[in-house]
Amino acid sequence: MAHGAVLGSAGLFTVLLGAALPLVDFFIVNVALPDMGRDLGAGEATLELVVAGYGVAYAVLLVLGGRIGDLFGRRALFLVGMAAFGLTSLACGLAPTAGVLVGARVAQGAAAAFMLPQVLATIQSTTAGARRAKAMSLYGATAGLSMVAGQILGGVLVSADVAGLGWRAIFLVNVPVAAVGLLCAVRSVPETRSAAPAPVDLPGTALLAVGLVTLLLPLTEGRAAGWPLWTWVLLALFPCAAAAFLAVERRADRAGRTPLVPPSLFRIVSVRRGLLILVPFSIGFGGFMFVVAVALQRGLRMGPVEAGLSLTPAAVAFFFGSLAGPRLVRRFGSAVVTAGALLQALGLGVVVVTVHAGWPELGVLGLAPGMVLTGLGQSFQLPVVMRIVLSEIPAERAGVGGGVMTTTQQAALALGVATLGTLFLSLAPSAGMGTALVTTLLVQIGAVLLTAGLSARLPRALV
Running DSSP on this structure, what letter comes out for residue 295? Predict the structure, then answer.
């Protein structure tokens, strides 16, 4: 921690803006994909690469981004990441072909990966006690709200057709936002770095990249591409890459070097148990957002705005639940996570009953009760779990810890889109959109109940 470095309100707002942008852009494309396909003449497999290219690049480079921030300064890398995010967003918005758009999305994901870990590391290094607890609650609230708001904002921008830009507006809107973020960061974000920065673990970085690509790329692209041979080859390579990564990291740890993902990090109980909850939660969240967008637009023929607005009740409930969360945590501890999971399961159950009884005559108002309960339940989980994961990580390892947590979250979000999305799209042609949606939501309820069970192992009192 830099001596005397304190993160003020303006600095906290700025880094939270940096946290919001990457998550908004992961989900903002969901409601814009049909328009992109028509405009660029892109098939389903290419459109899924627009989603997967960003998600995979983002997940692969997050831990490395945290390590480089520890080494060269988190404020400096935050500025570089924010500037690169604005430029790559401009490239996405101006892309003349689908191939250029996919390439720009990969670059945008890489820029996000270098910006986001600095947010958590800066908060960890410049706050303490009650201020840190409040900042972490706001970070978790920002993360959850951004994921829902991205889809809503995407629908509004596509339908508004600002200056005839259509879907391109969802990317171009980032450019002025990134410019404002840069100006604010120069003025208000203090520079911090690790007191004992470790060199970059090149073998670990390469093997983590191979492992995530061999898992996420075939799962995301496989169904749309018709499951060609390369998808099965990559999936077969995944266990080998994962085993090699674990072996290299353990060997580096034993030799006294600092691996990319230190195995000793997982000896911290709060890290281990928090990540075990974050995985099923994020898989369900990512899959739910994607499947709902597709079901409402293709199945119910909703426009982008109506499809986006169907999530507004969940976003509003998440916002107010996040505000109440810190007070509830002080009173009930981590039991709030268990209650949130059960509330989310109830909300999804209400959506299931609503879809089963009302399909295909559903509207935004009919879905609202289930969405409110779902959003409220999610708001009691995500901010608290993120706070738990980072609560006992030393400040000098804040960049690594933040990178590991955000990588886990991002990989799980992408995995949710791939697995629940594939399940839904595979069932839809034969069973119909309504039945496919009900089946997918029932699978997600199972993941939510798993989260509830795992949360029973969390320490009840939180710092």
Answer: I
